[in-house]
Amino acid sequence: MIGDVVLLICGIGVLYYGAEWLVRGAARLAASLGVSPIVVGLTVVSFGTSAPELVVCTVAALGGSPDLAIGNVMGSNLANIGLILGVTALVRPLDVRVRVVWREMPLMLLLTLALYPLAWDGVLSRGDGVLLLFALVAYLIFVFYSVEDEAPEILGEYEEFMKESDRTTSLVSGTDVLWVIAGSACLVLGGICIVAGAVGIASSLGISEVVIGLTVVAVGTSLPELATSLVAALRSEADIAVGNVIGSNIFNVAAILGTASVVSPLSIPSHVLTRELAVVVAMSLLLFPILRTRWRIRRWEGALLLACYVGAVTWLL
What we know:
Mean pLDDT: 78
Strand content: under 5%
CATH topology: A middle domain of Talin 1
CATH architecture: Up-down Bundle
CATH class: Mainly Alpha
Strand order of the largest sheet: 1-4
Low-confidence stretches: none
Shape: globular
CATH superfamily: NCX, central ion-binding region
Number of strands: 4
Distance between the termini: 20 Å
């Protein structure tokens, strides 16, 4: 079991750096091709920070561990709202002004709720996966056209964040391509290590793969989102911190479960719908009244989100 723990920890470390390199290279390439910084921030960065979940879930699905894949997505979405937004708001209260984020929140909830009819028969089929991927394409089109309505100061905020993060350039660079390739390779290697270690630990302790995916694996694969949101909050760029979390949750459902189920249909235990998914829906709903109070997450509300996350995970365990 010690070997499995070491494998899991090493996999999380490799996965984290892989995601960072992938985001850096992909964001710079997108910017060099003329994509606006706010579109890069709401799509490329969100997708890149969700890449660990994508790799882990795909590897788990191919390896015959669908419970680990489902647990990872449910746990990551829980961690994004409760752990990441909670910790980030404790560091600095978050004022959200981006209109796109306001519009994304209902989409996040609708996509989460859509899993009920799709998985009610106990499986996410390839057809269900295709529907989720279509939803992802629709979301990307929505973001692309919605950002034109944003205020100039918001556009400037995203542009400044990209510059300070070394994620903008006017020229296509071979170095950026290498970042993407190296990041992708590390993601695959880290994903394989995490799945092997997590399955070994679950087997040794006699616990379900859903539980290990919901806790250790979910927190490990959410580290890129945590790093991005904390950096944004420390720079007083709360819109980016919240937008990254909501965008990542949308990608987790649409892109990750969609891709994983297309690769290999995922069996969904009934308890996932009544417990894990229900808790994710509840945490998503909790975010609405918090943000609706002047579109601000205050420190005590961050503490509330964090406490709810700890309580939810404890109850699920």
